[in-house]
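User: quick one, fold this
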Amino acid sequence: MNVAALFGAVALLGATIAAPAAASAIDTSGGYAAKIDYFGARYTPAYGQTFTVGSDNALNGFTFYLGGGAARVRAYVYSWSGVGALGAALYASDARNFGGTAGDAFEALRFDVGALDLRAGQRYVAFLTTAGLNQPAGSESSWMPTAGSFGSNAYRDGDFVFSNAGDSLDAIVGQPWDDVHGVYGDVQFTADFSPGATAGAGVPEPAAWAMLIGGFGLAGGVLRRRRTRTSVRFA
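Assistant:
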């Protein structure tokens, strides 16, 4: 990559960080299409969806959908680092009982947040977890319905993500998550927003600052080593 192209990439990163997403509401819900199975304390304890905040940056509430075996869950919202949940919880619900469903039926679990100010243009993760909660006797795995066909990109500003890190919130938050590339597509999910007390547009999260500063550092390194050619391969 030449110097001009590299500076262009860094500038594009800065613009991406600063620019708020357009959506003020997210809704990928609908009828049954497919399911992502094996959510639960005996299987995978955290299923979630990443999302990008628009110019209406106060999160009022969000909804996940569950089917299958009964479960006891909590919902959380965290900043998203690109590979996992970052920092302290921005929202934590009370424990919620899901009674279970039969066949392809599923139910909505709505969580009212109460106008949580987030930063426009930044990505966050909302997730359900069984971590640290006693589960119903004999409970089996639950599942989440997908948004459209399996692996489809119904919501382009986020992805379904999950964590097998362990049955504690500290383990889930402190480790990289298992799928961060959108291989499974999106789950059915809704979130609604209103204008916040502070718009927050163009104020990057700490992880975004690190990416931006690292990009400028890389550009400086290229200027010092113009004649060195580097090949990068992604596995």
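User: anything notable?
Assistant: The helical segments are 3-18, 169-174, 206-224.
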